[in-house]
Amino acid sequence: MTLIDWLIVALYVVATIAIGMYFTKKASESTADFFVAGRSLPWFIAGTSMVATTFSSDTPLFVAGVVREQGIYANWIWWVSVIGVLVSVFFFANLWRRSEAITEIEFISQRYDKSKATDGLRVFKALFDGVFINCIIIASVTLAMSDIISVILGFSNEALFNVPIFGGITATDVVLVGLALAAVGYTALSGLYGVVYTDLIQFGLAIIGSIALAFLVYVDLGDQGGIVTALQATPNFDSETLRFFPEFGWDLKTATFFILLAIGWWNYAPGFGFFLQRTLASKSEKDAVLSLYWFAFCHLVVRSWPWIIVGVASIIYFPNLADPEQAYPRMIDSFLPVGLKGVMVASLLAAFMSTLDTQLNWGSSYLVNDIYSPYLVKDKPKEHYVKAARISMLLLTIVALFVTTMVTSIIQAYEYIAVVVIPLAFVQVIRWYWWKINVYSEITALVTAAIVGNALLFILPDVGEERWFAVRMLCTAIATVILTIIVTLLTSSKEPTEQTIKFYGRLRVHGPGWKKVREMTGITPLSSGLKDNSIACLASIAMIYSLLLGIGHLLFEQWQQAVPYAVAIVISGWILHKKMPLVIKNLRS
Protein backbone atom coordinates (compact mmCIF):
# COMPACT_ATOMS: atom_id res chain seq x y z
CA MET A 1 0.00 0.00 0.00
CA THR A 2 1.46 3.33 -1.10
CA LEU A 3 0.48 6.89 -0.23
CA ILE A 4 -1.77 7.06 -3.32
CA ASP A 5 -3.58 3.88 -2.23
CA TRP A 6 -4.11 5.26 1.26
CA LEU A 7 -5.43 8.55 -0.16
CA ILE A 8 -8.05 6.63 -2.16
CA VAL A 9 -9.12 4.77 0.97
CA ALA A 10 -9.24 8.04 2.95
CA LEU A 11 -11.32 9.69 0.21
CA TYR A 12 -13.92 6.93 0.50
CA VAL A 13 -14.15 7.28 4.29
CA VAL A 14 -14.56 11.06 4.01
CA ALA A 15 -17.27 10.61 1.34
CA THR A 16 -19.30 8.26 3.57
CA ILE A 17 -19.15 10.67 6.50
CA ALA A 18 -20.19 13.56 4.23
CA ILE A 19 -23.16 11.57 2.94
CA GLY A 20 -24.17 10.73 6.50
CA MET A 21 -24.10 14.38 7.51
CA TYR A 22 -26.00 15.45 4.37
CA PHE A 23 -28.97 13.16 5.09
CA THR A 24 -29.09 13.62 8.87
CA LYS A 25 -31.99 16.07 8.91
CA LYS A 26 -34.02 14.07 6.40
CA ALA A 27 -33.51 10.78 8.26
CA SER A 28 -34.52 12.32 11.59
CA GLU A 29 -38.05 13.24 10.48
CA SER A 30 -39.62 9.84 11.24
CA THR A 31 -38.92 6.12 11.57
CA ALA A 32 -40.25 5.67 8.02
CA ASP A 33 -37.55 8.06 6.82
CA PHE A 34 -34.89 6.44 9.00
CA PHE A 35 -35.67 2.80 8.14
CA VAL A 36 -37.20 2.90 4.63
CA ALA A 37 -35.94 6.25 3.27
CA GLY A 38 -39.45 7.71 3.18
CA ARG A 39 -40.37 5.12 0.50
CA SER A 40 -38.62 7.30 -2.07
CA LEU A 41 -36.04 5.04 -3.75
CA PRO A 42 -36.11 4.58 -7.55
CA TRP A 43 -35.45 1.04 -8.79
CA PHE A 44 -31.84 1.65 -9.81
CA ILE A 45 -30.84 3.02 -6.40
CA ALA A 46 -32.67 0.29 -4.45
CA GLY A 47 -31.37 -2.52 -6.68
CA THR A 48 -27.78 -1.28 -6.72
CA SER A 49 -27.86 -1.01 -2.94
CA MET A 50 -28.88 -4.68 -2.75
CA VAL A 51 -25.97 -5.62 -5.01
CA ALA A 52 -23.52 -3.60 -2.95
CA THR A 53 -24.73 -5.09 0.33
CA THR A 54 -24.43 -8.68 -0.91
CA PHE A 55 -20.84 -7.89 -1.93
CA SER A 56 -19.71 -8.02 1.67
CA SER A 57 -16.06 -8.39 2.62
CA ASP A 58 -16.51 -12.15 3.04
CA THR A 59 -18.05 -12.77 -0.41
CA PRO A 60 -14.93 -12.86 -2.64
CA LEU A 61 -13.05 -14.76 0.08
CA PHE A 62 -15.89 -17.27 0.29
CA VAL A 63 -16.03 -17.72 -3.51
CA ALA A 64 -12.25 -18.15 -3.86
CA GLY A 65 -12.27 -20.55 -0.92
CA VAL A 66 -14.99 -22.90 -2.21
CA VAL A 67 -13.46 -22.89 -5.72
CA ARG A 68 -10.14 -24.04 -4.24
CA GLU A 69 -11.68 -26.64 -1.96
CA GLN A 70 -14.44 -28.07 -4.16
CA GLY A 71 -14.53 -26.51 -7.62
CA ILE A 72 -16.53 -23.93 -9.57
CA TYR A 73 -19.75 -25.92 -9.15
CA ALA A 74 -19.63 -25.30 -5.39
CA ASN A 75 -20.86 -21.77 -6.13
CA TRP A 76 -24.32 -23.20 -6.65
CA ILE A 77 -24.71 -22.71 -2.89
CA TRP A 78 -25.31 -19.01 -3.69
CA TRP A 79 -26.12 -19.19 -7.41
CA VAL A 80 -29.44 -20.92 -6.60
CA SER A 81 -30.55 -17.86 -4.62
CA VAL A 82 -31.38 -16.02 -7.84
CA ILE A 83 -34.19 -18.50 -8.56
CA GLY A 84 -35.83 -17.28 -5.38
CA VAL A 85 -35.12 -13.64 -6.17
CA LEU A 86 -36.81 -13.98 -9.56
CA VAL A 87 -39.80 -15.72 -7.99
CA SER A 88 -39.99 -12.76 -5.61
CA VAL A 89 -39.86 -10.36 -8.58
CA PHE A 90 -42.99 -11.79 -10.16
CA PHE A 91 -45.06 -12.90 -7.17
CA PHE A 92 -44.13 -11.04 -3.97
CA ALA A 93 -42.30 -7.73 -4.49
CA ASN A 94 -45.41 -5.77 -5.49
CA LEU A 95 -47.40 -7.24 -2.58
CA TRP A 96 -44.76 -6.24 -0.06
CA ARG A 97 -44.68 -2.70 -1.40
CA ARG A 98 -48.48 -2.61 -1.31
CA SER A 99 -48.48 -3.61 2.37
CA GLU A 100 -46.59 -0.40 3.30
CA ALA A 101 -44.99 -2.15 6.27
CA ILE A 102 -41.74 -0.79 7.67
CA THR A 103 -40.34 -4.27 8.41
CA GLU A 104 -41.21 -7.81 7.38
CA ILE A 105 -41.88 -8.59 11.07
CA GLU A 106 -44.61 -5.94 11.15
CA PHE A 107 -46.37 -8.05 8.50
CA ILE A 108 -47.18 -10.59 11.25
CA SER A 109 -49.52 -8.07 12.89
CA GLN A 110 -51.10 -7.21 9.53
CA ARG A 111 -51.71 -10.82 8.54
CA TYR A 112 -52.82 -12.58 11.76
CA ASP A 113 -55.53 -11.98 14.34
CA LYS A 114 -54.63 -9.88 17.36
CA SER A 115 -53.57 -12.24 20.18
CA LYS A 116 -50.81 -12.96 22.67
CA ALA A 117 -49.48 -15.58 20.26
CA THR A 118 -49.24 -12.99 17.47
CA ASP A 119 -47.49 -10.50 19.74
CA GLY A 120 -45.14 -13.20 21.02
CA LEU A 121 -44.26 -14.33 17.49
CA ARG A 122 -43.56 -10.76 16.42
CA VAL A 123 -41.25 -10.13 19.38
CA PHE A 124 -39.45 -13.46 19.04
CA LYS A 125 -38.90 -13.05 15.29
CA ALA A 126 -37.58 -9.53 15.85
CA LEU A 127 -35.03 -10.87 18.33
CA PHE A 128 -34.20 -14.04 16.36
CA ASP A 129 -33.69 -12.30 13.00
CA GLY A 130 -32.66 -8.87 14.21
CA VAL A 131 -30.14 -10.02 16.81
CA PHE A 132 -29.22 -13.72 16.47
CA ILE A 133 -29.10 -14.19 12.68
CA ASN A 134 -28.01 -10.59 12.17
CA CYS A 135 -25.02 -10.95 14.49
CA ILE A 136 -23.89 -14.20 12.81
CA ILE A 137 -23.86 -12.38 9.45
CA ILE A 138 -21.96 -9.42 10.91
CA ALA A 139 -19.50 -11.84 12.56
CA SER A 140 -18.81 -13.64 9.27
CA VAL A 141 -18.06 -10.42 7.35
CA THR A 142 -15.90 -9.18 10.25
CA LEU A 143 -13.95 -12.45 10.18
CA ALA A 144 -13.36 -11.97 6.45
CA MET A 145 -12.29 -8.37 6.92
CA SER A 146 -9.81 -9.56 9.52
CA ASP A 147 -8.17 -11.84 6.93
CA ILE A 148 -8.05 -9.03 4.38
CA ILE A 149 -6.44 -6.57 6.79
CA SER A 150 -3.88 -9.04 8.11
CA VAL A 151 -2.78 -10.16 4.62
CA ILE A 152 -2.77 -6.85 2.75
CA LEU A 153 -1.55 -4.63 5.57
CA GLY A 154 0.74 -7.27 7.05
CA PHE A 155 -0.33 -6.71 10.67
CA SER A 156 1.02 -8.99 13.39
CA ASN A 157 -1.32 -11.36 15.22
CA GLU A 158 0.24 -10.45 18.56
CA ALA A 159 -2.13 -8.87 21.09
CA LEU A 160 -1.52 -5.19 21.83
CA PHE A 161 -3.59 -5.38 25.03
CA ASN A 162 -6.35 -7.42 26.66
CA VAL A 163 -10.03 -6.59 27.13
CA PRO A 164 -12.29 -8.59 29.46
CA ILE A 165 -14.63 -11.00 27.59
CA PHE A 166 -13.06 -10.17 24.18
CA GLY A 167 -9.54 -11.28 25.14
CA GLY A 168 -6.39 -10.12 23.34
CA ILE A 169 -6.83 -7.18 20.98
CA THR A 170 -4.55 -7.06 17.92
CA ALA A 171 -3.80 -4.22 15.50
CA THR A 172 -6.27 -5.81 13.08
CA ASP A 173 -8.96 -5.73 15.77
CA VAL A 174 -8.30 -2.04 16.37
CA VAL A 175 -8.81 -1.28 12.66
CA LEU A 176 -12.00 -3.37 12.59
CA VAL A 177 -13.44 -1.54 15.58
CA GLY A 178 -12.58 1.79 13.93
CA LEU A 179 -14.36 0.78 10.72
CA ALA A 180 -17.36 -0.47 12.71
CA LEU A 181 -17.62 2.80 14.63
CA ALA A 182 -17.41 4.78 11.38
CA ALA A 183 -20.23 2.68 9.89
CA VAL A 184 -22.31 3.11 13.04
CA GLY A 185 -21.65 6.84 12.93
CA TYR A 186 -22.85 7.64 9.42
CA THR A 187 -25.69 5.10 9.58
CA ALA A 188 -26.95 6.51 12.86
CA LEU A 189 -26.87 9.98 11.35
CA SER A 190 -28.51 9.29 8.00
CA GLY A 191 -30.52 6.06 8.36
CA LEU A 192 -31.29 4.15 5.16
CA TYR A 193 -30.62 7.27 3.06
CA GLY A 194 -26.95 7.17 3.99
CA VAL A 195 -26.80 3.39 3.59
CA VAL A 196 -28.09 3.31 0.01
CA TYR A 197 -26.15 6.29 -1.29
CA THR A 198 -22.85 5.12 0.19
CA ASP A 199 -23.69 1.77 -1.44
CA LEU A 200 -23.52 3.46 -4.85
CA ILE A 201 -19.90 4.42 -4.20
CA GLN A 202 -19.13 0.95 -2.88
CA PHE A 203 -20.69 -0.71 -5.94
CA GLY A 204 -18.58 1.41 -8.29
CA LEU A 205 -15.35 0.70 -6.41
CA ALA A 206 -16.13 -3.01 -6.13
CA ILE A 207 -16.90 -3.48 -9.82
CA ILE A 208 -13.78 -1.58 -10.90
CA GLY A 209 -11.52 -3.38 -8.43
CA SER A 210 -12.78 -6.95 -8.94
CA ILE A 211 -12.91 -6.76 -12.75
CA ALA A 212 -9.47 -5.11 -12.89
CA LEU A 213 -7.96 -7.85 -10.71
CA ALA A 214 -9.56 -10.63 -12.77
CA PHE A 215 -8.44 -8.98 -16.03
CA LEU A 216 -4.81 -8.61 -14.90
CA VAL A 217 -4.70 -12.20 -13.67
CA TYR A 218 -6.32 -13.53 -16.85
CA VAL A 219 -3.89 -11.62 -19.08
CA ASP A 220 -0.89 -12.75 -17.01
CA LEU A 221 -1.95 -16.36 -17.42
CA GLY A 222 -1.98 -15.85 -21.18
CA ASP A 223 1.83 -16.09 -21.08
CA GLN A 224 1.42 -19.58 -19.58
CA GLY A 225 -0.90 -20.79 -22.34
CA GLY A 226 -4.12 -19.55 -20.72
CA ILE A 227 -5.90 -20.22 -17.48
CA VAL A 228 -6.90 -23.81 -18.33
CA THR A 229 -3.44 -24.86 -19.51
CA ALA A 230 -1.75 -23.23 -16.52
CA LEU A 231 -4.16 -24.89 -14.08
CA GLN A 232 -3.65 -28.32 -15.63
CA ALA A 233 0.09 -27.88 -15.16
CA THR A 234 -0.18 -27.39 -11.38
CA PRO A 235 1.23 -30.26 -9.27
CA ASN A 236 -2.07 -31.31 -7.67
CA PHE A 237 -4.47 -30.50 -10.52
CA ASP A 238 -8.01 -31.71 -9.89
CA SER A 239 -10.35 -31.85 -12.88
CA GLU A 240 -13.26 -31.14 -10.52
CA THR A 241 -12.04 -27.55 -10.20
CA LEU A 242 -13.30 -26.54 -13.66
CA ARG A 243 -16.65 -28.31 -13.50
CA PHE A 244 -19.76 -26.09 -13.56
CA PHE A 245 -21.83 -29.00 -12.26
CA PRO A 246 -20.77 -31.87 -9.98
CA GLU A 247 -20.07 -35.23 -11.54
CA PHE A 248 -23.47 -36.81 -11.06
CA GLY A 249 -23.59 -40.11 -9.23
CA TRP A 250 -25.00 -41.74 -6.11
CA ASP A 251 -22.94 -39.63 -3.75
CA LEU A 252 -23.19 -36.74 -1.30
CA LYS A 253 -22.00 -34.10 -3.80
CA THR A 254 -24.78 -34.94 -6.24
CA ALA A 255 -27.36 -35.02 -3.47
CA THR A 256 -26.18 -31.63 -2.19
CA PHE A 257 -26.47 -30.09 -5.66
CA PHE A 258 -30.03 -31.27 -6.27
CA ILE A 259 -31.16 -30.35 -2.75
CA LEU A 260 -29.82 -26.82 -3.26
CA LEU A 261 -31.54 -26.62 -6.65
CA ALA A 262 -34.82 -27.82 -5.12
CA ILE A 263 -35.01 -25.79 -1.90
CA GLY A 264 -31.83 -23.73 -1.50
CA TRP A 265 -33.59 -20.66 -2.91
CA TRP A 266 -36.76 -20.86 -0.81
CA ASN A 267 -36.03 -18.08 1.65
CA TYR A 268 -35.32 -15.61 -1.17
CA ALA A 269 -38.75 -16.12 -2.75
CA PRO A 270 -40.99 -14.49 -0.11
CA GLY A 271 -38.28 -11.90 0.56
CA PHE A 272 -36.34 -11.28 3.75
CA GLY A 273 -34.00 -8.92 5.53
CA PHE A 274 -32.39 -6.07 3.66
CA PHE A 275 -33.91 -7.23 0.35
CA LEU A 276 -37.34 -6.52 1.77
CA GLN A 277 -36.17 -3.31 3.36
CA ARG A 278 -35.14 -1.99 -0.08
CA THR A 279 -38.38 -3.32 -1.59
CA LEU A 280 -40.43 -1.52 1.06
CA ALA A 281 -38.35 1.63 0.52
CA SER A 282 -39.03 1.72 -3.24
CA LYS A 283 -41.24 4.55 -4.43
CA SER A 284 -43.72 2.29 -6.25
CA GLU A 285 -44.61 -1.34 -6.93
CA LYS A 286 -42.97 -1.04 -10.33
CA ASP A 287 -39.73 0.20 -8.76
CA ALA A 288 -39.84 -2.61 -6.18
CA VAL A 289 -40.10 -5.25 -8.94
CA LEU A 290 -37.43 -3.71 -11.19
CA SER A 291 -35.01 -3.21 -8.28
CA LEU A 292 -35.02 -6.95 -7.55
CA TYR A 293 -34.64 -7.77 -11.25
CA TRP A 294 -31.63 -5.47 -11.52
CA PHE A 295 -30.13 -7.11 -8.44
CA ALA A 296 -30.62 -10.62 -9.87
CA PHE A 297 -28.82 -9.70 -13.11
CA CYS A 298 -25.88 -7.97 -11.43
CA HIS A 299 -25.52 -10.50 -8.64
CA LEU A 300 -25.23 -13.51 -10.94
CA VAL A 301 -24.08 -12.32 -14.36
CA VAL A 302 -21.88 -9.29 -13.60
CA ARG A 303 -20.06 -10.35 -10.45
CA SER A 304 -19.65 -14.13 -10.51
CA TRP A 305 -16.80 -14.64 -12.93
CA PRO A 306 -14.33 -11.97 -11.76
CA TRP A 307 -14.32 -13.65 -8.33
CA ILE A 308 -14.18 -17.19 -9.75
CA ILE A 309 -11.37 -16.37 -12.19
CA VAL A 310 -9.26 -15.08 -9.30
CA GLY A 311 -10.15 -18.10 -7.16
CA VAL A 312 -9.12 -20.56 -9.89
CA ALA A 313 -5.95 -18.59 -10.63
CA SER A 314 -4.99 -18.59 -6.95
CA ILE A 315 -4.51 -22.38 -7.21
CA ILE A 316 -1.86 -21.72 -9.87
CA TYR A 317 -0.03 -18.99 -7.98
CA PHE A 318 -0.54 -20.30 -4.41
CA PRO A 319 -0.98 -24.07 -4.77
CA ASN A 320 -0.10 -24.89 -1.15
CA LEU A 321 -2.07 -22.20 0.67
CA ALA A 322 -3.17 -23.54 4.06
CA ASP A 323 -6.20 -21.26 4.50
CA PRO A 324 -8.27 -21.11 1.28
CA GLU A 325 -10.11 -18.01 2.49
CA GLN A 326 -6.84 -16.05 2.31
CA ALA A 327 -6.47 -16.70 -1.43
CA TYR A 328 -8.31 -13.58 -2.59
CA PRO A 329 -6.44 -11.03 -0.45
CA ARG A 330 -3.13 -12.66 -1.44
CA MET A 331 -4.03 -12.26 -5.12
CA ILE A 332 -4.86 -8.59 -4.51
CA ASP A 333 -1.52 -8.05 -2.84
CA SER A 334 0.35 -9.80 -5.66
CA PHE A 335 -1.31 -8.38 -8.77
CA LEU A 336 -2.81 -4.95 -8.30
CA PRO A 337 -0.58 -1.95 -9.02
CA VAL A 338 -0.48 1.37 -7.19
CA GLY A 339 -3.84 3.11 -7.38
CA LEU A 340 -5.86 0.01 -8.27
CA LYS A 341 -4.77 -1.61 -5.03
CA GLY A 342 -6.13 1.42 -3.22
CA VAL A 343 -9.41 1.12 -5.16
CA MET A 344 -9.68 -2.57 -4.27
CA VAL A 345 -8.81 -2.08 -0.61
CA ALA A 346 -11.26 0.82 -0.46
CA SER A 347 -13.92 -1.39 -2.09
CA LEU A 348 -13.33 -4.15 0.47
CA LEU A 349 -13.44 -1.69 3.34
CA ALA A 350 -16.57 -0.26 1.73
CA ALA A 351 -18.00 -3.76 1.34
CA PHE A 352 -17.47 -4.42 5.02
CA MET A 353 -18.99 -1.08 6.03
CA SER A 354 -21.82 -1.46 3.49
CA THR A 355 -22.88 -4.82 4.88
CA LEU A 356 -22.41 -3.62 8.44
CA ASP A 357 -24.46 -0.44 7.99
CA THR A 358 -27.25 -2.39 6.30
CA GLN A 359 -27.36 -5.07 8.99
CA LEU A 360 -27.34 -2.45 11.75
CA ASN A 361 -30.10 -0.36 10.19
CA TRP A 362 -32.15 -3.48 9.41
CA GLY A 363 -31.63 -5.02 12.87
CA SER A 364 -32.42 -1.72 14.56
CA SER A 365 -35.66 -1.46 12.58
CA TYR A 366 -36.81 -4.76 14.12
CA LEU A 367 -35.89 -3.75 17.66
CA VAL A 368 -37.57 -0.34 17.47
CA ASN A 369 -40.49 -0.93 15.09
CA ASP A 370 -41.45 -4.40 16.33
CA ILE A 371 -40.55 -4.40 20.05
CA TYR A 372 -39.77 -0.98 21.51
CA SER A 373 -42.47 1.11 19.83
CA PRO A 374 -45.50 -1.25 19.91
CA TYR A 375 -44.88 -2.93 23.28
CA LEU A 376 -42.37 -1.14 25.52
CA VAL A 377 -42.64 2.63 25.02
CA LYS A 378 -45.78 3.70 23.17
CA ASP A 379 -47.05 7.01 21.80
CA LYS A 380 -43.83 8.99 21.95
CA PRO A 381 -42.83 11.70 19.43
CA LYS A 382 -41.19 10.50 16.21
CA GLU A 383 -37.87 11.97 17.27
CA HIS A 384 -37.84 9.70 20.33
CA TYR A 385 -37.98 6.54 18.22
CA VAL A 386 -35.28 7.77 15.84
CA LYS A 387 -33.05 8.35 18.86
CA ALA A 388 -33.88 4.86 20.13
CA ALA A 389 -32.90 3.46 16.72
CA ARG A 390 -29.50 5.12 16.92
CA ILE A 391 -28.85 3.75 20.41
CA SER A 392 -29.93 0.24 19.39
CA MET A 393 -27.40 0.29 16.53
CA LEU A 394 -24.56 0.82 18.97
CA LEU A 395 -25.80 -2.01 21.19
CA LEU A 396 -26.08 -4.34 18.19
CA THR A 397 -22.51 -3.52 17.21
CA ILE A 398 -21.20 -4.51 20.64
CA VAL A 399 -23.11 -7.82 20.60
CA ALA A 400 -21.97 -8.58 17.03
CA LEU A 401 -18.30 -7.97 17.88
CA PHE A 402 -18.65 -10.42 20.77
CA VAL A 403 -20.24 -13.05 18.48
CA THR A 404 -17.32 -12.55 16.08
CA THR A 405 -14.97 -14.05 18.68
CA MET A 406 -16.93 -17.34 18.45
CA VAL A 407 -17.18 -17.68 14.64
CA THR A 408 -14.21 -19.49 13.05
CA SER A 409 -15.40 -20.22 9.49
CA ILE A 410 -17.35 -18.15 6.97
CA ILE A 411 -18.62 -21.22 5.13
CA GLN A 412 -19.84 -22.97 8.29
CA ALA A 413 -21.65 -19.83 9.44
CA TYR A 414 -23.67 -19.63 6.22
CA GLU A 415 -24.36 -23.36 6.18
CA TYR A 416 -25.79 -23.18 9.70
CA ILE A 417 -28.07 -20.28 8.76
CA ALA A 418 -29.27 -22.18 5.68
CA VAL A 419 -30.29 -25.24 7.71
CA VAL A 420 -32.42 -23.39 10.28
CA VAL A 421 -33.76 -20.51 8.14
CA ILE A 422 -34.54 -21.87 4.64
CA PRO A 423 -37.25 -24.33 5.87
CA LEU A 424 -39.15 -21.37 7.36
CA ALA A 425 -39.71 -19.99 3.88
CA PHE A 426 -42.49 -22.50 3.21
CA VAL A 427 -44.93 -20.85 5.60
CA GLN A 428 -43.68 -17.37 4.59
CA VAL A 429 -44.69 -18.14 0.99
CA ILE A 430 -48.08 -19.73 1.51
CA ARG A 431 -49.25 -17.14 4.08
CA TRP A 432 -49.62 -14.80 1.10
CA TYR A 433 -51.67 -17.21 -1.01
CA TRP A 434 -53.78 -19.29 1.44
CA TRP A 435 -56.14 -17.60 3.86
CA LYS A 436 -56.12 -20.51 6.34
CA ILE A 437 -52.51 -19.90 7.38
CA ASN A 438 -52.52 -18.50 10.90
CA VAL A 439 -50.12 -17.51 13.66
CA TYR A 440 -49.85 -21.09 14.93
CA SER A 441 -48.75 -22.23 11.48
CA GLU A 442 -45.81 -19.86 11.63
CA ILE A 443 -44.94 -20.70 15.25
CA THR A 444 -44.94 -24.40 14.34
CA ALA A 445 -42.57 -23.79 11.43
CA LEU A 446 -40.22 -21.77 13.62
CA VAL A 447 -40.09 -24.29 16.46
CA THR A 448 -39.75 -27.29 14.13
CA ALA A 449 -36.92 -25.76 12.11
CA ALA A 450 -35.02 -24.78 15.25
CA ILE A 451 -35.37 -28.16 16.99
CA VAL A 452 -34.84 -30.41 13.98
CA GLY A 453 -32.10 -28.27 12.40
CA ASN A 454 -30.03 -28.15 15.59
CA ALA A 455 -30.65 -31.81 16.45
CA LEU A 456 -29.36 -32.88 13.03
CA LEU A 457 -26.05 -31.16 13.76
CA PHE A 458 -25.39 -34.07 16.14
CA ILE A 459 -27.13 -36.79 14.11
CA LEU A 460 -25.53 -35.85 10.74
CA PRO A 461 -22.36 -33.89 11.56
CA ASP A 462 -19.87 -32.83 8.91
CA VAL A 463 -16.91 -35.21 8.89
CA GLY A 464 -13.80 -34.12 7.00
CA GLU A 465 -14.81 -33.30 3.41
CA GLU A 466 -18.27 -34.84 3.86
CA ARG A 467 -20.56 -31.84 4.33
CA TRP A 468 -24.07 -32.90 5.25
CA PHE A 469 -25.60 -29.44 5.60
CA ALA A 470 -27.83 -29.81 2.51
CA VAL A 471 -29.21 -33.15 3.74
CA ARG A 472 -29.84 -31.57 7.15
CA MET A 473 -31.60 -28.70 5.40
CA LEU A 474 -33.82 -31.09 3.37
CA CYS A 475 -34.78 -33.16 6.42
CA THR A 476 -35.56 -30.00 8.37
CA ALA A 477 -37.65 -28.65 5.49
CA ILE A 478 -39.67 -31.87 5.14
CA ALA A 479 -40.43 -31.97 8.86
CA THR A 480 -41.33 -28.27 8.86
CA VAL A 481 -43.71 -28.53 5.88
CA ILE A 482 -45.54 -31.59 7.24
CA LEU A 483 -46.04 -30.25 10.74
CA THR A 484 -46.99 -26.77 9.51
CA ILE A 485 -49.75 -28.13 7.26
CA ILE A 486 -51.08 -30.42 10.02
CA VAL A 487 -51.20 -27.60 12.58
CA THR A 488 -52.80 -25.23 10.05
CA LEU A 489 -55.63 -27.67 9.36
CA LEU A 490 -56.15 -28.27 13.07
CA THR A 491 -56.09 -24.63 14.20
CA SER A 492 -57.56 -22.61 11.32
CA SER A 493 -61.07 -21.22 11.63
CA LYS A 494 -63.84 -22.56 9.42
CA GLU A 495 -64.62 -19.08 8.16
CA PRO A 496 -62.23 -16.18 7.40
CA THR A 497 -61.80 -13.92 10.43
CA GLU A 498 -62.27 -10.17 10.46
CA GLN A 499 -58.49 -9.64 10.34
CA THR A 500 -58.13 -12.02 7.38
CA ILE A 501 -60.85 -10.16 5.46
CA LYS A 502 -59.27 -6.81 6.33
CA PHE A 503 -55.88 -8.05 5.09
CA TYR A 504 -57.35 -9.25 1.81
CA GLY A 505 -59.31 -6.03 1.36
CA ARG A 506 -56.12 -3.96 1.64
CA LEU A 507 -53.85 -6.08 -0.54
CA ARG A 508 -56.40 -7.81 -2.83
CA VAL A 509 -54.13 -10.80 -3.42
CA HIS A 510 -54.79 -13.03 -6.40
CA GLY A 511 -54.71 -16.83 -6.44
CA PRO A 512 -57.08 -19.74 -5.66
CA GLY A 513 -56.18 -19.72 -1.95
CA TRP A 514 -58.32 -16.58 -1.45
CA LYS A 515 -61.36 -17.81 -3.41
CA LYS A 516 -63.58 -18.12 -0.34
CA VAL A 517 -62.67 -14.62 0.87
CA ARG A 518 -63.31 -13.17 -2.59
CA GLU A 519 -66.74 -14.79 -2.68
CA MET A 520 -67.59 -13.46 0.80
CA THR A 521 -66.47 -9.91 0.15
CA GLY A 522 -67.08 -9.51 -3.57
CA ILE A 523 -63.68 -7.78 -3.81
CA THR A 524 -61.72 -8.77 -6.90
CA PRO A 525 -57.91 -9.04 -6.94
CA LEU A 526 -56.07 -5.81 -7.73
CA SER A 527 -54.20 -7.56 -10.50
CA SER A 528 -54.26 -10.99 -12.03
CA GLY A 529 -51.86 -12.34 -14.60
CA LEU A 530 -50.58 -15.46 -12.79
CA LYS A 531 -50.05 -17.14 -16.13
CA ASP A 532 -48.10 -14.25 -17.67
CA ASN A 533 -46.07 -13.82 -14.49
CA SER A 534 -45.21 -17.53 -14.36
CA ILE A 535 -44.05 -17.59 -17.98
CA ALA A 536 -42.00 -14.40 -17.51
CA CYS A 537 -40.46 -15.83 -14.34
CA LEU A 538 -39.38 -19.09 -16.02
CA ALA A 539 -38.01 -17.19 -19.02
CA SER A 540 -36.04 -14.89 -16.72
CA ILE A 541 -34.54 -17.84 -14.85
CA ALA A 542 -33.55 -19.46 -18.16
CA MET A 543 -32.03 -16.26 -19.57
CA ILE A 544 -30.01 -15.21 -16.51
CA TYR A 545 -28.58 -18.68 -15.85
CA SER A 546 -27.80 -19.13 -19.55
CA LEU A 547 -25.91 -15.84 -19.49
CA LEU A 548 -24.02 -16.97 -16.38
CA LEU A 549 -23.00 -20.37 -17.72
CA GLY A 550 -22.46 -19.23 -21.32
CA ILE A 551 -20.02 -16.50 -20.25
CA GLY A 552 -18.24 -19.00 -17.99
CA HIS A 553 -17.70 -21.48 -20.81
CA LEU A 554 -16.27 -18.73 -23.03
CA LEU A 555 -13.86 -17.58 -20.29
CA PHE A 556 -12.59 -21.13 -19.84
CA GLU A 557 -12.28 -21.68 -23.62
CA GLN A 558 -15.08 -24.23 -23.82
CA TRP A 559 -16.52 -22.93 -27.06
CA GLN A 560 -18.87 -25.76 -28.02
CA GLN A 561 -20.48 -25.91 -24.58
CA ALA A 562 -21.36 -22.20 -24.86
CA VAL A 563 -23.52 -22.68 -27.99
CA PRO A 564 -26.65 -24.19 -26.32
CA TYR A 565 -26.65 -21.35 -23.78
CA ALA A 566 -26.52 -18.78 -26.58
CA VAL A 567 -29.60 -20.38 -28.14
CA ALA A 568 -31.37 -20.39 -24.75
CA ILE A 569 -30.57 -16.69 -24.28
CA VAL A 570 -32.20 -15.81 -27.61
CA ILE A 571 -35.36 -17.87 -26.97
CA SER A 572 -35.87 -16.74 -23.37
CA GLY A 573 -35.13 -13.14 -24.34
CA TRP A 574 -37.83 -13.25 -27.02
CA ILE A 575 -40.38 -14.64 -24.52
CA LEU A 576 -39.52 -11.89 -22.04
CA HIS A 577 -39.92 -9.28 -24.77
CA LYS A 578 -43.51 -10.50 -25.19
CA LYS A 579 -44.49 -11.07 -21.54
CA MET A 580 -42.67 -8.42 -19.50
CA PRO A 581 -44.85 -5.49 -20.73
CA LEU A 582 -47.94 -7.40 -19.53
CA VAL A 583 -46.38 -7.94 -16.09
CA ILE A 584 -45.42 -4.27 -15.72
CA LYS A 585 -48.88 -3.16 -16.86
CA ASN A 586 -50.47 -4.72 -13.74
CA LEU A 587 -48.20 -2.82 -11.32
CA ARG A 588 -48.76 0.51 -9.62
CA SER A 589 -46.26 2.96 -11.06
From TrEMBL:
GO molecular function: D-glucose:sodium symporter activity
Keywords: Membrane, Transmembrane, Transmembrane helix
Major place of residence: membrane
Membrane-topology descriptor: Multi-pass membrane protein
InterPro entries: Na/Glc_symporter_sf (IPR038377), Na/solute_symporter (IPR001734)
PROSITE patterns hit by this protein: NA_SOLUT_SYMP_3
UniProt keyword annotation of Membrane present: yes
Assigned protein family: Belongs to the sodium:solute symporter (SSF) (TC 2.A.21) family.
Record protein name field: Sodium:proline symporter
UniProt organism field: Parashewanella curva
